[in-house]
Amino acid sequence: MQNITLDNITQAVINHGDGGKSHPRLYEIYRSLVTHLHAFVREVNLTEQELQMGRGFLNRASHHTQEIPNGEIHMLTDLLGISELVELLHDTERGTATESNLEGPMYIPDVPERQMGNCLGVDHEGDPLLLSGCVLDVNGQPIPNTLIEVWQSNSQGLYDIQDSSQPQGNFRGCFRTQADGKYELETVVPQGYNIPASGPCGEVLRLLGRHTWRAAHIHFQLSAAGYSSLITQIFIDGDAHIDSDTTFSVKSAIVKLQKHERPEELFAHNQNKPFYTTEFNFVLQPTVCEASRVEHLALITSQ
Ligand SMILES: [Fe+2]
């Protein structure tokens, strides 16, 4: 196309291709993205210098570092609220099932399976936490043989992959429910932590006057045959940043901790210092709900 002007450049970009004949969904996303990006550039009257700063920001955000081994792109979508927005958009048909939540950038697949009740990690500084509950279906029936993947930071707010002083796989593990659907594990009370902030995302947050704290949480991924897999997080009631988590991901899955410090309680639970307990039940949706949702989305896409 010749004679490109302010008035026709957006449509020229959208029209440059086969108009979605090959890949309709990709084109739908592309067309909307171009439309919104061009509108944004016009609205803020973006300068060449600012554009160059943006290019540099994205380039640096993609770099892998010791502090954030997978780069900052995933974290960037969390900080912009985009990750949570996508969660909310697609978590509307869960009914009474447990809410989903962000996977976050610290997930590692294929971690070792542990015996029910075992310790998730080693942390002599942390406050012991005995976490238990059930995995249930939407009718309240137990779901046996559910694989529960758990990962969290230690009491210093660091994940094993960020901290060479921790053993590999510390505070990561899989547990499998028995016939009664119950699970139990020992861990430490997670602490809120600052997201890795030495890179470009941290720089921008500081310039915006935004803090970098995540409220204390524990990550889970649950998989059971016949049920939709669930990725979620639970949060700790009373955490200092429960109302201002920097990823906007605190919803209703908030647990209260009960402290135990009487000598007979310590003895009964084989603990040598005060410990905490809490319970959380997970409720999974049957897979049929997922299938019907996919059919529904396919119908919408074809229209
Ligand atoms: Fe996390």
UniProtKB/TrEMBL annotation:
Query: Is Zinc a UniProt keyword of this protein?
Result: no
Q: Name any cofactors this protein relies on.
A: Fe(3+)
Database matches in Gene3D superfamilies:
Aromatic compound dioxygenase
Family annotation (PROSITE patterns): INTRADIOL_DIOXYGENAS
**Which ranges carry the Intradiol ring-cleavage dioxygenases domain?**
131-159
Q: What InterPro entries does UniProt report for this protein, alphabetically?
A: Catechol_dOase_N, Intradiol_dOase_C, Intradiol_dOase_core, Intradiol_RC_Dioxygenase
- GO biological process, any: catechol-containing compound metabolic process
Q: Does the keyword Metal-binding apply?
A: yes
Question: Where does the source fall among the domains of life?
Answer: Bacteria
What SUPFAM superfamilies does UniProt report for this protein, alphabetically? Aromatic compound dioxygenase
Q: Which GO terms describe its molecular function?
A: catechol 1,2-dioxygenase activity; ferric iron binding
User: What are the entry keywords?
Assistant: Dioxygenase, Iron, Metal-binding, Oxidoreductase
Family per record: Belongs to the intradiol ring-cleavage dioxygenase family.
Which named protein is this?
Hydroxyquinol 1,2-dioxygenase
Q: What phylogenetic lineage does the species belong to?
A: Bacteria, Bacillati, Cyanobacteriota, Cyanophyceae, Nostocales
